[in-house]
């Protein structure tokens, strides 16, 4: 990707349904040139547009971050963990831990069970767990409180957007039995109420210029100023308050090692930051926030007696 592609990806991360005309206006291209760029990025498979449904809507409101210490190769361990429906994100990393993963479950007891099962995996020496208190920023999925009533048509739209976040309203309408205008109204409502977020997911090949780094922060005192500063940093794509060995968990994206150094030093300079531990995401094995989601599976989770 060149700099124009990177600018387009950033726009699509913010709004995956942004029109070609609006993309063209913001990056200084003609509409046809912008459309061609978007088509090429999507055709490459490096960028996909997905609808990510709020985990609470899916009946999985409890989130945890696990860092796994392995003995022997990490890749076979990652391959086994990637099969789990409650693991939407999994990455091979540098540092003390061979891989990190996110768990999304219905209850703390389910997280505890999942962590126990991870510890029992062949090749796993130990698991360090962080429980999420609150996700403050996420370029992939919706954050914050969510409360809404959904009918079968809403669920069908969510499923369709999960498969193709840029599907036209005409195509969406045909799948759910609405007019294009009716589909548009529903989609807008689902996005505005934070039931779903539609955005770009970048699949790192190891050959692109973009790198991702995670780090945990230990604080002295209140979290508000530090978290506020982190969420305003353009390179920061994920911020969560956590309980465990870190008070804040962060993911940053950069296009050079120098940029990563600048970001880390900027964070270390924030008043209230007392410690920072970082790791590089070397290979994202799984990033599928649709894991386990189908209309039938969600109904079963919400109404287990059926």
Automatic annotation (TrEMBL):
Q: Which residues form the HTH asnC-type domain?
A: 1-61, 150-202
Which GO cellular component terms are attached? cytosol
What biological-process GO terms show up in the record? response to amino acid
Query: What's the protein here called?
Result: Transcriptional regulator
- The answer, when asked if DNA-binding is one of the entry's keywords, is yes
Q: What GO molecular-function term can you cite, just one?
A: sequence-specific DNA binding
Print the keywords alphabetically.
DNA-binding, Transcription, Transcription regulation
Species the sequence originates in: Mycolicibacterium iranicum
């Amino acid at each position: 990707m060149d700099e124009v592609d990177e600018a387009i990806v950033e726009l699509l991360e913010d709004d995956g349904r942004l029109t070609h005309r609006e993309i063209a206006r913001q990056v200084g291209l003609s509409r046809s040139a912008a459309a061609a760029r978007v088509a090429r990025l999507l055709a490459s498979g490096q960028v996909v547009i997905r609808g990510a449904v709020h985990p609470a809507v899916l009946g999985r409101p409890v989130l945890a971050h696990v860092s796994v210490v392995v003995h022997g190769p990490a890749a076979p361990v990652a391959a086994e963990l990637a099969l789990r429906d409650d693991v939407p994100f999994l990455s091979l990393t540098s540092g003390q831990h061979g891989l990190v993963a996110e768990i999304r479950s219905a209850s703390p007891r389910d997280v505890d069970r999942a962590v126990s099962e991870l510890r029992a995996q062949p090749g796993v020496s130990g698991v360090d767990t962080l429980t999420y208190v609150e996700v403050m920023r996420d370029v992939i999925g919706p954050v914050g409180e969510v409360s809404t009533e959904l009918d079968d048509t809403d669920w069908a739209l969510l499923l369709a957007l999960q498969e193709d976040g840029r599907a036209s309203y005409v195509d969406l309408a045909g799948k759910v039995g609405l007019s294009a205008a009716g589909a548009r109204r529903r989609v807008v409502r689902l996005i505005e109420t934070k039931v779903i977020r539609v955005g770009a997911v970048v699949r790192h090949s190891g050959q692109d210029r973009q790198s991702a780094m995670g780090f945990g922060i230990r604080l002295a005192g209140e979290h508000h100023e530090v978290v506020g500063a982190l969420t305003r940093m353009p390179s920061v794509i994920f911020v969560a308050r956590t309980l465990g060995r870190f008070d804040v968990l962060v993911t940053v994206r950069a296009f050079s090692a120098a940029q990563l150094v600048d970001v880390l030093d900027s964070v270390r300079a924030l008043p209230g930051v007392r410690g920072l531990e970082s790791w590089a995401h070397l290979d994202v094995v799984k990033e599928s926030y649709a894991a386990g989601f189908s209309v039938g599976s969600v109904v079963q989770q919400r109404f287990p007696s059926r």
